[in-house]
Amino acid sequence: MDKFHIVGPSRLAGRVRASGAKNAALPALAASLLTDEPLTLHSVPRVRDLRTMARLLDHLGVANEEKGDAGTIVFHRTRPNNPDADDAPYDLVKTMRASVLVLGPLLGHFGHARVSLPGGCAIGVRPIDQHLKGLEALGADIQLSHGYVETVARRLTGARFRFDMATVTGTENVLMAACLAKGTSVLENCALEPEVTDLANLLNAMGARISGLGTATLVVDGVDSLGGAEHTIIPDRIEGGTYLIGAAMTRGDVLLENGIAADLAPLLDKLADAGATVEVTAEGVRVRVDNELVAKDVETCPHPGFPTDLQAQYMALMTQARGVSSIRETIFENRFQHAPELARMGADVRVDGASAHIHGPTPLAGAAVMATDLRASACLVLAGVAAEGETVVDRIYHLERGYEGMELKLQKLGARVARWSTTPAA
Ligand code: EPZ
């Protein structure tokens, strides 16, 4: 297993570009199941979760071919879907819960699907009841058997459905299925994350008829079939936000060249509130800090609230801000696993149920730490960059699920970080 070896402290300064958004690319790949024509996607990030999804699509008869080196991949059905095989087998789904995103497209296009229930994961139970309720509202017959979801529908029928809570992939799954339903669907209380809107734009480019984009009510006029399309994945606001937090944490000065200010607004407002200088120009989004930051509370919320995917990174930042800050995690029940590792580096952090309290600033000392999940890994890498001395972050395979070339991007910004490969040389 590879590790990151970091020597700090470093000040992060310069320009960086976010890769395509992992959480927009995953549903976009799943959308290739809705058509028999080629789907060309640009800016697909080279991260582990997308490789996993491409493997699942290949298992389902959709091959992929890279074109050039800018993350352009063409997805094209080359084999019929095998109705007798497990569409999404447990050994794939257990490594990536977003595999569940094939459920809606398979049901919408083929009228049946057999997908393993995703187990929980490090950050929480993460049920999919809303996905299933939404598909049932469209007329699907859902059976749960031996850890699998087995669903059948001759043809889905448009319906009105209201999600009980904002769910990103739940909205995406039901939205994709509704595109091929007979009649109109009105989906209420949809998630507002930019990645949902990016998917809706892709689906409309494929011939879907979705209106209400960017609002909590999506209206879908079902069509008989969808065609191929060409689409560019939006920049990753969570990856980009991670580097902007790194700038603030090291009193640096970073320009996120392809940052979309509207998508980053919840973070940018909080950074400005804490005393950072935030500039949005034609060149991109710039964050710099010239003096001490002030501790500011945050509560994670569905978009447009503060994103749970930046919570761990924000905790690392608050260890360097003056005062006491409270972080309340309202989305997932176990997303503070980075706290004890930060404490080992010198942070004064106390977890109390769904809240964490940080007293700062405290000097951070390099240490050997272990990543537990994707965003906790990013938090520990930022802490290592700001810490005095050497930090070794183990199990960075978590990090590689969602960060493309992180060590290279950090090196370009001035960090001293190297990858230590512990796997035997081939
Ligand atoms: C998406 O996960 C993201 N993943 C997550 O990013 C992100 O943290 C999360 O949205 C919240 O923004 C992808 O888009 C692939 P939810 P998702 O359904 O869709 C509960 C990362 O780090 N819920 O919006 O699985 C659920 O338990 C990852 O990139 C139900 O109860 O999250 C959670 O408490 C981590 N029943 C809340 O809703 C359901 O059927 C929000 O979950 C669905 C969700």
Short description:
This protein folds into two domains: 3-19 and 235-420, UDP-n-acetylglucosamine1-carboxyvinyl-transferase, Chain (Alpha-beta prism), CATH 3.65.10.10; 22-232, UDP-n-acetylglucosamine1-carboxyvinyl-transferase, Chain (Alpha-beta prism), CATH 3.65.10. Helix content is 30%, strand content 26%. It has helices at 22-30, 48-59, 90-93, 103-110, 129-137, 168-178, 194-205, 237-249, 261-273, 311-318, 338-344, 374-386, 406-412, and strands spanning 3-8, 13-16, 39-42, 62-67, 72-77, 112-116, 141-145, 148-152, 160-162, 184-188, 210-211, 218-221, 229-232, 253-256, 277-281, 284-288, 293-294, 298-299, 321-328, 348-352, 355-360, 368-370, 389-394, 416-420.
Architecture blueprint of SSEs:
Layout: E1 3-8, E2 13-16, H1 22-30, E3 39-42, H2 48-59, E4 62-67, E5 72-77, H3 90-93, H4 103-110, E6 112-116, H5 129-137, E7 141-145, E8 148-152, E9 160-162, H6 168-178, E10 184-188, H7 194-205, E11 210-211, E12 218-221, E13 229-232, H8 237-249, E14 253-256, H9 261-273, E15 277-281, E16 284-288, E17 293-294, E18 298-299, H10 311-318, E19 321-328, H11 338-344, E20 348-352, E21 355-360, E22 368-370, H12 374-386, E23 389-394, H13 406-412, E24 416-420
Parallel strand pairs: 2-14, 3-13, 9-10, 17-19, 18-19, 22-23
Antiparallel strand pairs: 1-23, 1-24, 3-5, 4-5, 6-8, 7-8, 10-12, 11-12, 14-16, 15-16, 19-21, 20-21
The structure holds ligand EPZ.
Ligand EPZ binds next to helix 1, helix 5, helix 6 and helix 12.
